Amino acid sequence: MPRSAPTTTTTVEPLGHRFRALLAATTLANLGDGVVQTVVPLYALTLTRSPGQIALVTALAWLPWLVLGVPGGVVVDRYDRRRVQVAALLARAALLGGAVALAATGRMTVPALLLLVLAYGVTDVLADLAQSALVPDVVPRSRLQAANGRVVAAQQVAGSFVGGPLGGAALALGAAWAFGLPAALAVLAVVTLLRGVPGSYRHERAATTPVRPARRAFDEAREGVGFLLRHPVLRPLLVAGSVLNMCFTGYTTLLVLWVVGAGSRVGMTPTTYPLLGVALATGALGGSLLVEPLLRRVGEVRLLLGCWVAMALLLVVPVAAPYPAAVAAAFLAIGLTSTVGNVLSQSMRQRLVAPAMLGRVGGAGRALAYGLMPVGALLAGAAAERWGLAAALLGATALSLVTLVHPLAVVRQRDVDAAEPAVG
Q1: Considering only CA atoms, which of 323, 324, 13, 19 is closest in space to residue 148?
Q2: 0.70 surpassed by pTM
Q3: Domain locations in the chain?
Q4: Residue 268 backbone dihedrals phi, psi, to 5 degrees
Q5: Residue-level pLDDT at 11
Q6: Cα 383–256–120 angle (5° rounding)?
Q7: CA-CA distance, 351 to 421, in Å (whole number)?
Q8: CA-CA distance, 249 to 241, in Å (whole number)?
Q9: What is the DSSP letter of 260?
Q10: Which of 62, 169, 313, 392 is 20–30 Å from 248 (CA)?
Q11: pLDDT score of 213 more than 90
Q12: CA neighbor of 144 nearest in space, from 342, 348, 297
């Protein structure tokens, strides 16, 4: 009897228990983020209706990334990444505990809220950089897209799908509840990290390449920035992604005025407004599940840039069709396309950057990508004050599309493939 041909099987490496614990901690922390991000602008509306002041709240939330993104990356590379994340979450819990006291006694003011948002942003820099740098430490290299897809999905689902409505419900009970709930979630995330992600994650000591013992923090930061500026793939993607973030932040800063209230064009209420976050998170969940199959069919660079273009085009919908159903449908599609794009760009960076430099390069990249967000919020607020909400929203959309011309022209898949082996 003829022998049957041997079958070829592909072994899929498991993500592992440490990643599951990291994912659980990320989910808890981002659930708290979703509550805070929903509560703060709605709470600010009870204090002011000025577009400029509302924009300032958003700007201060992202300003720490501009100032601390690079130094934060140095900290993540120098010290144990799990401990950095734990310390940042504990500081966040203490900060929110102070906000509970102010809200419960009726002493919360616009300046106090601005200080709260600024300090919360500082904790976000360290916690987010440490979490992102931990992912390639706890999962196999072959499963980076899958792991990052689950992380981004957890962030979106917890932050928007659950955190948004939960924040609205907590705010209905009182501002003290709205700030106390994310404080408790931060503590739970710390417990999950300490129990479920054992081991040391300090790469300076574990690096195999020689490191100058007396190297200063400035030199380390400059190394991360220089790597990005010289890289033929990461540089154009970083610039385009940063401008997109700036435009999207300005857009969403004004969206609450366009969508919520009796004088808005859409006419949603503070209770129904979080449903847009639910639509965004639903799309994000779908995007996280579609990353790997789409990647096999379309290709990495083509899929990444295509999703960015689609996301920018969808920003026209809330202005052209100011109806709750149309806006929700647009946000569903935005959630899907932005998640696919974010997963691919993050996984690409983790493959192309050496582990010992991942914190610095990630910090340098996010310093620009997130640092432009407060600029976008302030520019959008100023534009809306001068030309109106619709003009400012459409201006952010147009700039998003223009900025994608350069990466569409210069970034090719062969460049990504050629750069990866050099990492080693």
Answers
A1: 19
A2: no
A3: 17-200+218-423
A4: -80, 160
A5: 64
A6: 95
A7: 9
A8: 12
A9: B
A10: 169
A11: no
A12: 348
